[in-house]
Amino acid sequence: MPRAVCHLWLIVAIALLLCPMARAQSVLNYHGAPNRNGTYVTPGLTWEKAHGIHIDSSFDGHIDGHIYAQPLFWQSPKTHRQLLLVASENDTVYALDAHSGQVVWRKSLGQPVKGSALPCGNISPLGITGTPVIDDVNAAIYLDAMVDAEDGSGPQHLVFGLAVDDGSVMPGFPVNIAQALKTHGVTESARCAGDCRPYALHPLWRALRGLRSISWMGRRDRPR
After folding, report:
1. DSSP per-residue string spanning 115-157
2. What does the pLDDT look like over 56-114, one tens digit per residue?
3. What φ, ψ does residue 8 adopt, rounded to 5°?
């Protein structure tokens, strides 16, 4: 997705999310709800008011890399601080001030994987593709990043938990998916044929009562 298009989409999303009547509605996961229905209720937003939505030229909102994951909006239940969380294919996560677009924190999770290092797919580099999920109770954001391992072992799927307040890595993270599967006696998948590296994580994250689950998909929208 071209950066100019991403930037425009980001600004339009901000304009919608920061409608005065919608400020208390956090968007914590893909399409705004666990059932992924994409329904956003904004009291007071009419067709007439929608015509007045425009690009805010004073909003910063610059990030590095392409965006495939949906940006998320978080308002702290305790401090009412408002952030826009954006993850890019450069394996970078940003927390932007929801009003100015200025960077509050930036976290690099590693080196993304070049498309030439994978047997298939048309995303290059491949970093964070699936939409993260925010756990507003514990003020954490969870996501999968495809990382080119520093030890030369190649592409690795790493699941990160980051503190929404400052981007610091939560205790117990990152989790290496391949190593975790082996620990539980899972050595291969009928779908992945023992190698899930070419696949991305579908944005079907759940953060309900402490239970988190993910599912695989191809990078051409083929559910796994």
Report:
1. GGGSSS-S-SSB---S--EEETTTTEEEEEEEEE-TTS--EEE
2. 889 998 899 999 999 999 998 888 889 999 999 999 999 999 999 999 999 999 999 99
3. -65, -45
Quick one: residue 6, left, alpha or beta (phi over 0 = left, psi -120 to 50 = alpha)?
alpha
Rounded to an integer, the average pLDDT of 143-172 is 92
- DSSP-derived 3-state class of residue 102: coil
Picking from 86, 72, 84, 73, the residue whose alpha carbon sits closest to that of residue 24 is 73
Burial annotation 203-218 (CB, 10 A radius, 16+ → b, else e) = bbbebeeeeeebebbe
Taking the C-alpha atoms of residue 127 and residue 125, their distance in angstroms, rounded to an integer, is 6
Two structure tokens written together for 77: 């239940």
Give, in order, the Cα–Cα distances in Å from 198 to each of 85, 119, 182, 191, 224. 25, 7, 18, 11, 12
- Spatial CA neighbour of 76 closest among 136, 163, 27: 136
Q: Of 107-116, 140-149, 151-160, where does mean pLDDT reach its minimum?
A: 151-160
